[in-house]
Amino acid sequence: MSQGFVFRDDSVQRSVWTSTYSGKRSFLDNPLPRERRSTMSKDLNDVAPSLGEVNTLYVALEVSGTSWVVGIGDPEQRDKVGMHKLAPADTEGLLEKIGRARAGADGPSRVLLTYEAGYEGFWLVRWLGEHAPEIDVVICDPASLEVVRRKRRAKTDRIDARKMVRALRAWDGGDRGAMSPVRIPTIEEEDAKRLLRRRERLIKERRRLANSIAGLLRLHGVSLGDPAGKRFRARLDGLETRYGTELQPQLLAEIHGILDRLELVVAELKTVEAEKAAALKASQEALDGLPGHDGETEAAGTSDPAPDRAHFAAALVRLRGIGANDALVLDTERFYRDFDNRRQLASLAGLAPVPFASGGIDNDQGISKAGNPMLRKHLVQMAWRWLFFQPNSALSKWFREYVSARDGRARKRGIVALARKLLVALWRYVTSGLVPEGAILSRA
Questions:
Q1: Which CATH architecture is the domain 4-184 placed in?
Q2: Sign of the CA dihedral with 218 first, then 223, 226, and 231 last
Q3: Angle at the Cα of 261 (from 260 to 263), degrees rounded to 5?
Q4: Distance CA 172, CA 317 (A)
Q5: In the chain, where are the structural domains located?
Q6: Predicted pLDDT of residue 359
Q7: Does residue 70 sit in helix, strand or coil?
Q8: Which of 28, 45, 140, 389 sits at 20 to 30 Å (Cα–Cα) from 152?
Q9: Any idea what DSSP says for residue 248?
Q10: Using CA atoms, how far apart are residues 51 and 69, in angstroms rounded to an integer?
């Protein structure tokens, strides 16, 4: 048996030598030059099941902050999984373990690796895409893996790694229910999410700090209004409690300290709002320059020139009732990627119904609430505004008919259904230019 093996891809072919004995030459001794590695970009989502047609080495990585546990499935013995423990972020050690396993298995023609989506994000799959593009990576949704439903079940990193190897082998063999792959965003797509997520965190922090100050004052029967107001700090000087004494020095020191942090949050929030407005303005100006998008108010219609993906946010704002925050959330959180059908779109937003039916039992568990809760919150708010700003649209008429024929709780169920329908309608609008039926399309 040869001591080495060969990795190949479309752009480069190189021999990568490894050995099961220490002191021998390793592929880590001769890394590719940086100028050559940078050209080895590939579509990280272009990984499909081989259906057993390719000899594959299955690798599962259980990632944590203290260690990496690597499970490597034996290509010949399906039940045998080799376990290895590495230091956290030891990428070179990971490649060496894979190289040795591949050489010892008569050189399988393909390596398929998986790890769970989580706090580590996508840095590892991107690193492998640049330094080892021959390795196919599938990031799995941890909630999609089967678990034992005993009251108490054993759980260790080794057990999880072994379980992922089995699920990966089943998925590669055509069992799509064994695990759910996670789509890997580009660096630009991931960075585009930061602005509104940062804004959301700042708003929560502003509310938390303001409530802390208000709570401290209410302990002494005092209410001064919004702590973020311009004159709030000045009004604290000489302030008396409800029982007639001045505020104690430690209490004042704590309030002033919280006010300092609150002012920083408010200043950063203003910066984020300015960046958001600038991004939307640039998108709008670019959209107005395209044929068929002159920014003039249009009557309700059924079609509009489909915008380019870079101008989705500006196109959404042209629909009456869709605000800047809503448009940017939809653009950066959902519409940046492709969907095969409306069910995938609704499911990814967590708005798909979840049935519970068995025998004579047929219950509705509500919506799945999967995905980003910020997006769901905006969608429900958009649905309420849609009823106000687009009363003659087909969606608004459907909602009124749904509510009128049902009990008092129908409004709560109906608004969620309307949010789901609105999401699909807006997706069709930005991808095909199909304006929602009866909707008014205008600049503002």
A1: 2-Layer Sandwich (3.30)
A2: negative
A3: 65
A4: 42
A5: 4-184, 192-286, 290-432
A6: 83
A7: strand
A8: 140
A9: P
A10: 27
The pair of structure tokens assigned to 208 is: 């938390």
pLDDT digits (tens, 9 = 90+) for 233-250: 888 888 889 998 999 999
Burial code of 127-162, b = ≥16 C-beta within 10 A, e = fewer?
A: ebbebbbbbbbbbbebeebeeeeeeeeeeebeebbb
Task: Please provide the DSSP assignment of 138-169 as one string.
Answer: EEE-GGGS----SSS----HHHHHHHHHHHHH
Query: What gap in Å lies between CA 338 and CA 424, rounded to an integer?
Result: 13
Give me the amino acid identity at 325: N
Residues 6 or more apart whose Cβ sits within 8 Å of residue 184: 44, 45, 122, 125, 126, 139
Write down the pLDDT at residue 21. Answer: 30
Q: Which of 364, 306, 356 is nearest to 335 (CA)?
A: 306
Two structure tokens written together for 34: 């940086």
Contact (Cβ atoms closer than 8 angstroms) between residue 416 and residue 351: yes
How far CA 240 is from CA of 54, 226, 243, 352, 395, in Å, comes to 79, 18, 8, 54, 55
Check if the beta carbon of residue 68 is closer than 8 Å to that of residue 94: yes
Question: Which residue type sits at 318?
Answer: R
Indicate the residue type of 87. A
Phi-psi region of 298 (alpha: psi -120 to 50; beta: other; left: phi over 0): beta
Q: pLDDT per residue over 116-126, tens digit each?
A: 999 999 999 99
| Residue among 334, 328, 315 nearest 279 (CA) | 328
d(CA 120, CA 91): 13
Structure tokens at 402: 């749904």
